[in-house]
């Protein structure tokens, strides 16, 4: 799980661009976090969302990774819902959720 600034997410720091084939992130929306699908939101997820809020961003992009390890589509949807709920509790809007196998 990680927190990425716009600069990092756009690849300006040598990191690969975030996003999923056919579902690219809107890098102008704000910051992005990574949540492993096989673990779901962890305590650090809330901390990273709070850091995004503290940075002044109001929108966040979510990259749900390791989705191939979760065979139940309903579980993936529940994880997405939980991340959206956490963001909402902090006054953030989830701009996009991308899935990566």
Secondary structure layout plus pairing:
Layout: E1 2-4, H1 6-9, E2 19-20, E3 23-24, E4 31-36, H2 43-54, E5 59-65, H3 73-89, E6 93-99
Parallel strand pairs: 4-5, 5-6
Antiparallel strand pairs: 1-4, 2-3
Describe this structure in words.
This protein is an alpha/beta fold. It has one domain (2-17, 29-99): P-loop containing nucleotide triphosphate hydrolases (Rossmann fold, 3-Layer(aba) Sandwich). Helices cover 33% and strands 27% of the residues. The longest helix has 17 residues, at 73-89. The two termini are 14 Å apart. Residues 1-29 have low confidence and may be disordered.
What key phrases describe this protein's structure?
101 residues, alpha/beta, Rossmann fold, four-stranded mixed beta sheet, two-stranded antiparallel sheet, 3 helices, elongated
Strand content: 25-35%
CATH superfamily: P-loop containing nucleotide triphosphate hydrolases
Strand tally: 6
How far the N terminus sits from the C terminus, by CA atoms, comes to 14 Å
Order of helices and strands: EHEEEHEHE
Question: What fold name stands as the CATH topology?
Answer: Rossmann fold
Which stretches of 5+ consecutive residues score pLDDT under 50?
1-29
Strand order of the largest sheet: 1-4-5-6
What is the helix fraction of residues, given as a range? 25-40%
CATH architecture type: 3-Layer(aba) Sandwich
The first-level CATH class is given as Alpha Beta
Total separate domains: 1
- Average pLDDT taken over every residue: 81
| Rg over C-alpha atoms, rounded to the nearest angstrom | 13 Å
Number of helices: 3
Oligomer category: single chain
Task: Supply the helix-strand structural class.
Answer: alpha/beta
What summary fits the major beta sheet? 4 strands, mixed
Principal-axis shape: elongated
């Amino acid at each position: 799980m990680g927190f990425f600034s716009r600069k990092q997410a756009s690849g300006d720091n040598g990191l690969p661009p975030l996003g999923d084939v056919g579902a690219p992130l809107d890098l102008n929306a704000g910051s992005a976090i990574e949540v492993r699908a096989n673990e779901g939101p962890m305590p650090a997820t809330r901390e990273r969302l709070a850091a995004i809020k503290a940075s002044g961003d109001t929108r966040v992009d979510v990259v749900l990774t390791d989705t191939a390890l979760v065979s139940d589509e309903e579980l993936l949807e529940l994880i997405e819902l939980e991340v959206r709920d956490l963001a909402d509790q902090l006054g953030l809007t989830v701009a996009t959720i991308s899935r990566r196998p």
